[in-house]
Amino acid sequence: IMFGYANDETEDCMPLTHSMATRLGKKLTDVRKSGLLWWLRPDGKTQVTIEYLQKADGSVEPRKIHTVVISTQHAEPLKATRTKECAGYTGPEMTAPSMTDMNTLIIEEVVKKTLEEIKLKSGQPALSLFGEHTHLYINPSGKFIIGGP
């Protein structure tokens, strides 16, 4: 069974929420594997909710990003060290940041950079839909140290 549809919300003809959620997950993988956010671990999930304006002709236009949820596995805050977390790492020793700092880094390095890369039909980056009105939930259940299978 297959389901889905194409539209003109994004350059890749995918629904904006799908494109955002998929690319956020990919960016989490990229920053983990590159070592930028070395304390991330592989398990995670994303969810994006967009608020739309319905036009008189029935078409809809994205107005703002209402909610972004990212739950991602990570090393023990303020305890885990890079030499123990990253096999083969030989650089200077580092300790995983606090949960607050982890969340800030995820917002800056994952959320905002991903939204800057996604182009809307208008040519504007999806980041133009992000703002003070956007509800951000990064690891809303708290620490996520033990992941799935």
TrEMBL record:
Record EC number: 2.5.1.6
Domain S-adenosylmethionine synthetase central: 1-144
Broadest EC class assigned to this enzyme: transferase
Record GO terms (molecular function): ATP binding; metal ion binding; methionine adenosyltransferase activity
InterPro entries attached to this UniProt entry: S-AdoMet_synt_central (IPR022629), S-AdoMet_synthetase (IPR002133), S-AdoMet_synthetase_sfam (IPR022636)
Annotated transmembrane regions: none
Family: Belongs to the AdoMet synthase family.
Highest taxon listed in the record's lineage: Eukaryota
SUPFAM superfamilies registered for this protein in UniProt: S-adenosylmethionine synthetase
Keywords of the record: ATP-binding, Magnesium, Metal-binding, Nucleotide-binding, One-carbon metabolism, Potassium, Transferase
Co-factor(s): K(+); Mg(2+)
UniProt pathway: Amino-acid biosynthesis; S-adenosyl-L-methionine biosynthesis; S-adenosyl-L-methionine from L-methionine: step 1/1
Pfam families per record: S-AdoMet_synt_M
Designated name of the protein: methionine adenosyltransferase
GO biological process: one-carbon metabolic process; S-adenosylmethionine biosynthetic process
